Amino acid sequence: MLATAVAGLVALAPAADAQVGTGPWIADSPGYTEQERGCGQVSGLTFQLTCSTASGDQRAERRYTTYSGGTHQFEGSFKITSMSGTRISLKQTFRDGSDAGPYFLLAVEKGGRLYAVEGGATLGSGATVGTAVRVNTINQVGSSHKVYLNGSLKQTIPSPGGSYYDKFGSYRTASGAGPITVQWSGIRFWHK
């Protein structure tokens, strides 16, 4: 009887880690810096572009520590609280070092379409004002970069060797403009 009651409690207990992909995973706590440029504003985990400027460097982001080699996972949830702009990058995996530059950018269009900026592939929909979306990226350096939305695998692309870092917030793409306000939560990192 006791074993049945304990088994029932264990079945109801939430998983200790919500990460996706095959583990085991080791929790990380990388350092970060905040970036505010143009009309970008950061307040805690709220990231705003306050203008409708369609040119220049408009960003409000957190940039995390560079890593090289291994497999690294990011997890975070975002909720757009207001948006009259479009084509705003929310999560990025950037190359660093001698190959520095954009590698993967997850962006949102007005109407809620989520897409990969490089190549334009649609990765999801429904990222409308007030709807929470969980994002996981797994970068196995030298092998593959995977993108999950709400726990479902949406994209796998090759990952060249080298150095990378994660960013999230709000960033005007070359074809985008604000304004937008995005709240992030549940930010976690792992490696293996």
UniProtKB/TrEMBL annotation:
**Keywords assigned by UniProt, alphabetized:** Signal
Keyword Signal assigned to the entry: answer is yes
Signal peptide (UniProt feature, chain positions):
1-18
Q: Is Signal among the key words of this record? A: yes
Per its record, how is this protein called by name? LamG domain-containing protein
